Automatic annotation (TrEMBL):
<dbReference type="InterPro" id="IPR005828">
    <property type="entry name" value="MFS_sugar_transport-like"/>
</dbReference>
<dbReference type="InterPro" id="IPR020846">
    <property type="entry name" value="MFS_dom"/>
</dbReference>
<feature type="transmembrane region" description="Helical">
    <location>
        <begin position="139"/>
        <end position="163"/>
    </location>
</feature>
<feature type="transmembrane region" description="Helical">
    <location>
        <begin position="250"/>
        <end position="268"/>
    </location>
</feature>
<feature type="transmembrane region" description="Helical">
    <location>
        <begin position="82"/>
        <end position="101"/>
    </location>
</feature>
<feature type="transmembrane region" description="Helical">
    <location>
        <begin position="50"/>
        <end position="70"/>
    </location>
</feature>
<feature type="transmembrane region" description="Helical">
    <location>
        <begin position="374"/>
        <end position="398"/>
    </location>
</feature>
<feature type="transmembrane region" description="Helical">
    <location>
        <begin position="315"/>
        <end position="331"/>
    </location>
</feature>
<feature type="domain" description="Major facilitator superfamily (MFS) profile">
    <location>
        <begin position="14"/>
        <end position="429"/>
    </location>
</feature>
<keyword id="KW-1133">Transmembrane helix</keyword>
<protein>
    <submittedName>
        <fullName>Major facilitator transporter</fullName>
    </submittedName>
</protein>
<dbReference type="GO" id="GO:0046943">
    <property type="term" value="F:carboxylic acid transmembrane transporter activity"/>
</dbReference>
<feature type="transmembrane region" description="Helical">
    <location>
        <begin position="404"/>
        <end position="424"/>
    </location>
</feature>
<feature type="transmembrane region" description="Helical">
    <location>
        <begin position="288"/>
        <end position="308"/>
    </location>
</feature>
<keyword id="KW-0812">Transmembrane</keyword>
<dbReference type="InterPro" id="IPR005829">
    <property type="entry name" value="Sugar_transporter_CS"/>
</dbReference>
<dbReference type="GO" id="GO:0005886">
    <property type="term" value="C:plasma membrane"/>
</dbReference>
């Protein structure tokens, strides 16, 4: 029976809730880069570029820990609990950042915050994909992942309005207020239908499918097909399934793509305001570049997903990474204002936009029994790049290398990411049919 005949709630409602949770990650992406200029001037801290880059990397180390642990945990205990726990953890971590009394305390607080964020994105993306119509998986994923740059836009606007007058602590204080969305999630965020079915909670799964218009018979059919397969028959799921011959090469390529993409995204977002200040722009103007970059990310996410649903994720991701490369090369030449804005916009489209599209590609590629683990693994390993990104930016900024290398250092991994995407194999599993290249 097609459950859609008794639909009482739109799956876009799930997208909206996941959008709110993913906005947490976007806010956190921007907050450190926006506050670095003030942290470098904090009285008594004596913080230099290398030390600031190290603190930025501590955050991302926490994210890597959270991602690697949260993916398989979500496949075990469900997406809903992990999302709520991640939001709570992020709020507490942001509060600790706001009251940090030294660079060391801030670094520890940022590490704690990162662990909480690691539980948010894999579960949110997986949940969005599972509630999306099969022909619109990339679009629904992109709508939810638009929360990523929107959270960054909110942070950038707050920084422009309040950083100079109220200092850096207030931005982290606003992050702690995110805890107010927890009651909404508790009462309205649904669990994954596939997860409930996998755990034998058939009646709950059927009721949710009917409420959201999901074809329950198709979900059951997909689950049975997986169990009939050589791997599924052995009850293998999570990381063990990812490391099987069926998915091993794909997950390694996705991880390498994420590594390069995250290096670019976090390196640029941590250091773009400071790079622009070094080029002669005042703090307020350099923060505006960060804002334009987020608008580019929103455009890349929405337009890219529309194209991916029609032409395939691979055919979209590789050109997007090359747009990022070209934009960074333009930035390295100190162009006039119009080209400068276009280049910053393109850098956001091709870096953050590509990263968010990659989430949807991974989620649609893998079956439900290892979807959370796949996102967590690829992004967790990819976070090594996000750890290196701020460090590399700090090293280049503190070195005697020329202005061009501030941007060449991030253009190179963008090219590598574009090449890696071309080697990702076609999806072979029924759940992955809409990730077709």
């Amino acid at each position: 029976m097609d459950s859609s005949s008794k639909k009482t709630r739109s799956s876009l409602f799930v997208v909206a809730l996941c959008f709110l949770t993913i906005a947490v990650d976007g806010y956190d992406l921007i907050i450190y880069g926006a506050t670095i200029p003030r942290l470098l001037e904090e009285p008594g801290w004596q913080l230099g570029p290398a030390g600031a880059g190290l603190i930025g990397s501590w955050t991302l180390a926490g994210l890597m820990v959270g991602l690697l642990g949260a993916g398989p945990m979500a496949d075990r205990i469900g997406r809903r609990k992990l999302i709520m726990a991640g939001v709570l953890w992020f709020s507490v971590g942001s509060l600790l950042c706001a009251i940090a009394h030294s660079p060391h305390a801030l670094g520890v607080a940022r590490f704690i915050t990162g662990i909480g964020l690691g539980g948010v994105v894999p579960s949110s993306v997986a949940l969005t994909i599972e509630y999306a119509p099969r022909s619109r998986r990339q679009l629904y994923s992109a709508l939810a992942l638009t929360g990523y740059p929107v959270g960054g836009v909110i942070c950038a606007l707050l920084a422009i309005a309040m950083l100079e007058s109220h200092g850096w602590r207030i931005l982290y204080g606003f992050g702690a207020l995110y805890i107010v969305i927890l009651p909404v999630m508790f009462f309205f965020l649904p669990e994954s239908v596939s997860h409930l079915l996998d755990r034998g909670r058939v009646q709950e799964a059927r009721a949710l499918a009917m409420r959201y218009g999901i074809d329950f018979d198709q979900v059951v059919s997909d689950e049975q097909e997986h169990r009939r397969s050589r791997i599924g028959a052995a009850g293998v799921r999570g990381y063990r399934l990812l490391m099987s011959s069926e998915f091993r090469s794909a997950i390694l390529l996705f991880a390498l793509m994420c590594f390069c993409g995250q290096l670019v995204v976090y390196g640029l977002n941590a250091w773009l305001p400071q790079l622009m200040r070094k080029s002669g722009y005042p703090l307020g103007s350099s923060l505006q570049f960060l804002l334009v970059m987020q608008f580019g990310a929103v455009a890349g996410n929405l337009c890219g997903s529309w194209l991916a649903d029609r032409y395939g994720s691979k055919r979209v991701l590789a050109p997007f990474f090359l747009i990022c490369t070209a934009s960074l090369l333009v930035l390295s030449q100190k162009p006039d204002f119009v080209w400068l804005m276009f280049a910053v916009f393109g850098a956001g489209l091709g870096s953050i936009g590509s990263t968010t599209l990659g989430y949807g590609y991974i989620a649609a590629f893998f079956p439900a029994s290892c979807r959370g683990s796949a996102i967590g693994a690829a992004q967790g390993i990819g976070r090594i790049g996000s750890i290196l990104g701020p460090m590399i930016g700090g090293w280049v900024l503190a070195s005697n290398l020329g202005h061009h290398w501030n941007f060449y250092a991030f253009a190179i991994p963008a090219v590598i990411a574009a090449v890696v995407v071309t080697f990702i194999p076609k999806a072979g599993h029924c759940d992955a049919s809409y990730a077709e290249v």
